[in-house]
Structures are given as C-alpha cells and as structure tokens.
Amino acid sequence: MSNGKMCGGCRRVIEDRRFLYCGGCKQFYDLNCANVSEQRFYNTFTKEHREAWRCVLCKSGQPKTDNTNTPVRAGADGVTVQRGASVRSPQQLDIMSIVEQPMSLNDTTHSMNIEVIDFQSFVMEMRAFRQEMRDEIRSNRSRIERLSETVLSLSDKVIECEDRIVMMNERINSLENRVSKVQTDTSLAASVEQLKAELNDRDQDLLLNDVEISCIHEQKGEGLLHVVTVLASKLGVNLAPQDIVSATRVGRAPEPVEAEKSLVARPRPIVVRLARRVVRDQLLQAARVRRGATTEGTGLPGTSRRYYINERLTKANRHLFRRTRELCSRLNWRYVWTRDGRIFVRQYYGKDAPRLRIRTEADLERVFGRDAVSAANNNVSA
User: Fold this and answer.
1) What is the pLDDT of residues 133-148, one digit of tens each?
2) pTM to 2 decimals?
3) What is the phi/psi pair of residue 199, to 5°?
4) Strand 342-346 and strand 356-358: pairing?
5) What does the alpha-carbon distance between residue 313 and residue 286 come to, in Å, rounded to a whole number?
6) Which domains does the chain have, with CATH numbers?
7) In this entry, which stretches build a coiled coil (predicted)?
8) pLDDT, position 372
9) What CA dihedral angle connects 22, 25, 29 and 33, to 10 degrees?
10) What burial letters (b/e) apply to 226-236, b meaning 16+ CB within 10 Å?
11) What pLDDT, on a 0 to 100 scale, did the predictor assign at position 337?
C-alpha cells in the first residue's frame, strides 16, 4: 500500500516502508536509489544510522578538508594575478567564497560517523559471510570423510576380488596342467584299455559253455528245455536232459502280435548253458554244417522260419562284432566270424590273406583304417 512518499532519485512513488530519509536535502529515497541492500538495511541500519544517512548529492557537496583559516578575498583591487591565471569578476569571487566556506565541526563529525557506520556494516557482513563459509566447509568436510570411508571400503573389496581372481587363475592353470598331463600320458590310457580288454576276456571265458539260439517264436508258458532238445535233434545232435544246465530268454519282453496273442512279433533269443564244452562245440559245428535249417517239422508253434545257433558273447563283444560286420560289408571284406568268443576277419580267401583278430575298438582303426572307421561313425551319428 502506498505511503504517499516519492523517491528523490527515480521520482517514483515508494510503495512500502523500505526507504531512507536524507537530512540534507529533506527527500526520501528507496533502497535501490540509496544503493543499500535489503540485508544491510534490516541488519545494520539502526535508528541512529537512518537519521545520520545522507544521499550521494549531499555527500558530494561537502568539502574534503577544513579550510576555516583561509582568508576570504575582499575585492578585485590590490589582487596580484599570476601570469596565465584567469581574471575573475567581483561577483565570481563572492560566489567562490560562499562555496568554499569551511565545513563546521558538526558536519565533519557527522561524515566520520557515516563512514564508521558503513565500516561496521561491512564488518558485520564479512562476519556473516565468514560464518556461512565455516558452516559450508564443515559440511563439505563431513561429506569428504564419508566419501573417503566409502572409497576405502571399495578399495578393500577390489583388493579382495583381485586376490580371488588370482587364486582362481592358479587353480585353473593347475587343472589345465593336470588335464594336459592326462591327455599326453598315453601309457595311462593304454593301461586302462588293457585292463578293460582283460576283464572282457575273463567275462567271455565264463560264457564258453553257452550258446544263443535266435529267431524262434516266443509263446507264453513255453517249455524251453523241450524247444532246445527239438532244435538240436533237427541239427543231428541228441541232447540228454543232464546236458542242459539252463535255458532262458534274455532281453525285454516284447508286445504280443495283434493277430495271435500267444505269439510275439520279435522273439527274444534263447540262452542255453550246457554242462560240457564238448557238447557245445558239437552243437555249434552242426549248426555251421546245416546252415539254413528251419523250424519245419519240429512241431513248434508259428510258421516255419530259419533259426540260428551262435556263441554267446559279452555285451562289449556283441557291440564290437556288430561294428566289425558293418565295416566288412562297407569295405567288401568277405569273412567275419567268432570262435571261442574271439572275433576274426579275413579280407578274402587265400594264404596271402591273413586272419586278423579284433579285440578292441583300436583294432578297427588298425585293420580297416582311421578314415573308414570315421566315415562309418559319421553315418551312424547321422
């Protein structure tokens, strides 16, 4: 709300109570024209300061020194004018004497009081600024201390991670060295293969009295001892009951045929264990002589079909024999057979074609070549 006062500097109406009164020119000035900050106005300007305040024009009209002892020139007569000095009229001299009248003691004291007040306000502002800077420095110092603690913690964690990485690298290098030693240690691998081959040969020796009969119709409730006796008679070998130790089918039982529930589609082989090895050799020899014998005339159920009697092999030898037959068929090798659980091959008939034994997987590469074995493996995997 306007208070009816007008600024003597900008000639605008003063809207509030933030103004100063000059005792010299008797005019009001707002803070902007008085060149006084709002903070200084409220903090340092007391009642005495406001009463002693003078505007810039009033301050500029005050003399800088006391010249009360300087005589006033009375007139133009008797005045010696120096060369080059301007000559003034009596009216000009009177005006100069009026302007150059010395300041009184009260005016000098008033000017000094204003300067002291200004200096005190400056000191108070500097103290406030110093306190503000102290608070800011104290706050920054606490932040820097927290930041230093965080950096130290992160540094410890980084060092710990580096130590763990170094330890893991050492373990990895140790494992790589061990793996490389195992891979390069061919004697150890050869020893393992030798042990596996010896165990397989020992297991095969336990099956020297066994034969395997395949492609015989399977029926529920069948008498396998009778079936074995009939099939041996068809080959010309008479088996007494005491010659057969056991007879059983091996493998997973297949599903029965839809047309005839009592028979199955793919019968399991019959494993027969004989009491004497000589009887087993007679049965195998008769099966080789009468190759192509069928179940016709034996009285066994199902249609007539060809059956086979072979030596019983271990699981490893069966797998090895199957792969050997595949390679012989692919490479046109004519002969592959087993005798006493051992696998033999011959490329063709003749004295210059030796009989070669296949004992392990390594023998396949040795006999048929690495390229042929690799090609066969690729075809199987495809």
Assistant:
1) 998 998 899 899 999 9
2) 0.50
3) -65, -40
4) antiparallel
5) 19
6) 208-311 (3.30.70.1820), 315-381 (no CATH)
7) 130-185
8) 84
9) -110
10) ebbbbbbebbe
11) 92
